[in-house]
Amino acid sequence: MALLFDLLIVQVVCTSRQWKRNQLVADLVYPPVISLVKGFWKYLGFQFTFEGDENIPRKGGAILAINHVSYLDFAIAGTAALPVNRYVRFMAKQQIFDNKIAGPLMRGMHHISVDRGNGSASFVAALKALKSGEIIGIFPEATISTSFEVKGLKSGAVRLAADAGVPIIPTIVWGGQRVYTKGVKPNFKRGKTPVFVSFGEAINYPQDVDIEAATLQLRQVMISMLNSVQENYPDSHVGQRWAPARLGGTAPAPLN
Question: Quick one: pLDDT at residue 61?
């Protein structure tokens, strides 16, 4: 195992310059996509509130560990990082990259494909990006939470942070599930939907961190942040399909 890790590190170091050259190409694709996304938000009438962006490093690698409540979360979180001039490279399912329309855009912006049958390749790609000073967006729940509570987290985000020597920025998104989420018909009608994004204080991990304990601790931080965002959300959660049962909503009860 130690030899395998050493080989992975060598691969990362040897290819870091190539990643930086590729980043120049990626940033030619990112700006026009941002313009399209901002136009979409304007059409929907999203009313954004961004909190804690002072916790996003202005340079150097970092991981945004984001809760997952809607199909729009990656674009919402990426939009929230723009005021500090950071582009987020997201780890996303292979199926998105296989899409004829989304795939070329995802590759062009150098988001990272996650093939669950070959996790080591995704890990190496993310490690390269972090070592090169990129911000990586990860959804550690690995899927949308239909209860809109923070599910149990996978340990990959903490492993990456410890191995790359970069901080995790716990990140909460809330509001996008009112428009497009799992198991509910999308509602793209124009409205005035409040959408919140909160960036928490950076968490740093030593390489010998207890991965499982740190992952449990990260989940508790994210739960606390989610509760805070929900307390400050201007619209009532009571009786709403997009709200958790804990707040009087009608979303399914959490499974874990």
Answer: 97
pLDDT of residue 220: 98
Cα–Cα dist 231/145, whole Å: 19
Residue 174 DSSP label: E
CA distance 102 to 185: 21
Question: For the whole prediction, is pTM greater than 0.90?
Answer: no
Residue 30, both tokens: 């990112």
Contact 79, 37 (CB under 8 A): yes
* Model confidence pLDDT, tens digit, residues 86-127: 999 999 888 888 888 888 888 778 788 887 766 688 889 899
Which residue ranges make up each domain of the chain? 12-247
Which class does domain 12-247 fall in? Answer: alpha beta
Helix/strand/coil for 80 = helix
**97-115-76-150 Cα dihedral, nearest 10 degrees:** 150
Token readout for 93 is 């399912």
Q: Which residues contact 116 (CB under 8 A, 6 or more apart)?
A: 93, 94
